[in-house]
């Protein structure tokens, strides 16, 4: 199977270990608005979903034998040890969220393909460039393209509906100031 994704998202060399990958990957600088939105997302997600899911901010997930991306936010299945000595596997990840400005093309492209490839059921992009939330559902799984069958777009301050989040007004998790 060949999937076009960026090197830092998918290991192309079979002789790399996950530990080597984690040492090699370079991180992009995070801007103030991006950091603010991730922080506010964290407050809202913990308040709304903290008893139903394990809420993880800026923490890696495990895509076995390939990579360990660090989405801005993850809602994972509850775990007795809260993932003390491991990363959530794709089947345990209910939602990944990327807050996106300078990384928008990558988040809409290679990250969407990668998350869909591994069957992550729902992927949201808080698109700060176009001032909307993009909800990706129905992962294609192990097809040639990965990605998702459906993408819905919601502008602030509308209410979005998702399988994982339910019905939620966008400004309930990203304050209106971020959309100005």
Describe the structure.
- By secondary structure, the chain is of the alpha+beta class.
- It has helices at residues 18-24, 32-49, 104-117, 170-173; strands at residues 54-57, 73-76, 93-100, 122-127, 132-139, 148-155, 159-162, 166-169.
- It has a single domain (18-179), classed as tt1808, chain A (Alpha-Beta Complex), CATH 3.90.1570.
- The chain contains four helices and eight strands.
- The N and C termini lie far apart (43 Å).
Using brief descriptors, characterize the structure shown.
180 residues; alpha+beta; tt1808, chain A; six-stranded mixed sheet; two-stranded antiparallel ribbon; 4 helices; 8 strands; 26% strand; globular; disordered N terminus
Terminal CA distance: 43 Å
CATH class: Alpha Beta
> What proportion strand?
25-35%
Largest sheet: 6 strands, mixed
Q: So what's the oligomer here?
A: single chain
The number of helical runs is 4
Number of strands: 8
Corresponding CATH superfamily: tt1808, chain A
Question: What share of the residues lie within helices?
Answer: 10-25%
At the fold tier of CATH, the topology name is tt1808, chain A
Mean pLDDT: 86
List low-confidence stretches: 1-5
Query: If you compute it from the alpha carbons, what radius of gyration comes out, rounded to the nearest whole angstrom?
Result: 16 Å
Secondary-structure class: alpha+beta
CATH architecture designation = Alpha-Beta Complex
Strand order of the largest sheet: 1-2-3-4-5-6
Order of helices and strands: HHEEEHEEEEEH
Tell me the overall shape.
globular
Number of domains: 1
